[in-house]
Design brief:
Largest sheet: 8 strands, antiparallel
Number of helices: 8
Helix content: 10-25%
Structural class: alpha+beta
Shape: globular
Strand content: 15-25%
Number of strands: 15
Order of helices and strands: HEHEHEEEEEEEHEEEEEEHHHH
Length: about 325
């Protein structure tokens, strides 16, 4: 009985710390909490402290398309390869307690990982003490996945724009390649694609009714209607040119409110703040075929060639797909 009471107290403390993390970084920030004792595992158990979110995922199977179901030669599978799950253990500087959090991150040239600042916070009571990125996490058993240590202290970050850029060890870009960045303007109604790890689960993509909303506010935020969940924070958002144009950061969609939206930060604003990212984007420009993620994985078994900008009838044409789904 005493052990049972201690267990309940431990669960309650963990719940409070996870809630503290959510409140400290904004109620809609889309990281997802986990027991720090599970850090390093591919499959993060859905314990009582995080709620039974699995049932929610099951009810929304149509919203997310598993990357595991794609042919490895598919252009979308190639686009998804540099994207992984970022796992973090944070310590409360006042209480000393730790909490786990899971987000999404993207490999970039030079072995950098781009994610949200609220995933690797550099201000407030919570400090990241260790972090890693789990690549090729496609199935619940974690078969074929590989983990790389991530520096918990980003080289560049900005709380307002909610981005963090950190170094990753082990040269993962030689295996999984890197994503392209673009500072191109994103207009309202632009079709988009998001590849992410909702609730820390295997990698999926959102493209069903995934687009920038027509009415955009002033400033660096991009309003969009792409389905996400906790754990999707830090996802790079792609347009039809298969270049990242925004960084997803928080939820806000309400199925009962057609005017509701999720929020991302435009890459154009982030590139204006980050010297490293601006240099990467300038170097990438319009890369030739041999500088793409597939080509950079020369040390691994052959990968599919780079996907060019989508043609009107191409596999990456979310504009056509969304037009069909809207009945136009």
């Amino acid at each position: 009985m005493a052990e049972s009471r201690r267990t309940r107290r431990s669960i309650l403390r963990g719940t409070c710390l996870i809630l503290t993390f959510a409140v400290a970084e904004g109620a809609q920030a889309q990281s997802v909490g986990f027991d720090p004792a599970d850090y390093g595992r591919a499959q993060l158990p859905l314990r009582q402290t995080t709620g039974d979110a699995a049932s929610y995922v099951d009810r929304n199977k149509g919203a997310f398309e598993p990357i595991a179901e794609l042919d490895p030669k598919d252009a979308l599978a190639a686009l998804a390869r540099p994207i992984g799950r970022v796992d973090i253990v944070l310590r409360n500087t006042r209480s000393g307690q730790t909490v786990g959090a899971s987000c999404t991150g993207t490999l970039l040239p030079g072995d950098y990982v781009l994610t949200n600042h609220h995933c690797l916070p550099q201000a407030g009571d919570l400090t990241p003490v260790k972090a890693s990125i789990l690549m090729d996490y496609l199935t619940l058993d974690g078969q074929g996945s590989r983990r790389f240590d991530l520096d918990p202290k980003p080289l560049e970050f900005d709380p307002r724009l909610d981005f963090a850029l950190a170094r990753v060890a082990g040269n993962p870009t030689a295996i999984y390649g890197s994503a392209r960045l673009s500072g191109a303007a994103v207009s309202g109604n632009r079709s988009m694609l998001v590849i992410h790890h909702p609730l820390g689960r295997p990698k999926v993509m959102s493209r069903f009714r995934c687009f920038a909303v027509k009415d955009q506010g002033e400033g660096p935020d991009l309003r969009h209607r792409c389905d996400t969940l906790g754990g999707s924070s830090g996802s790079l958002m792609f347009d039809a040119s298969v270049a990242g144009v925004a960084l997803h950061k928080e939820g806000g969609l309400d199925p009962k409110d057609p005017s509701s939206f999720n929020n991302a930060t435009r890459l154009s604003a982030i590139l204006g703040k980050s010297r490293i990212l601006a240099e990467i984007a300038a170097t990438q420009g319009h890369p030739p075929a041999d500088t793409t993620p597939a080509a950079s994985a020369a040390a691994t078994p052959p990968r599919p060639p780079a996907a060019p900008a989508a043609a009107a009838d191409g596999a990456l044409d979310p504009d056509r797909m969304n037009a069909i789904l809207r009945g136009r």
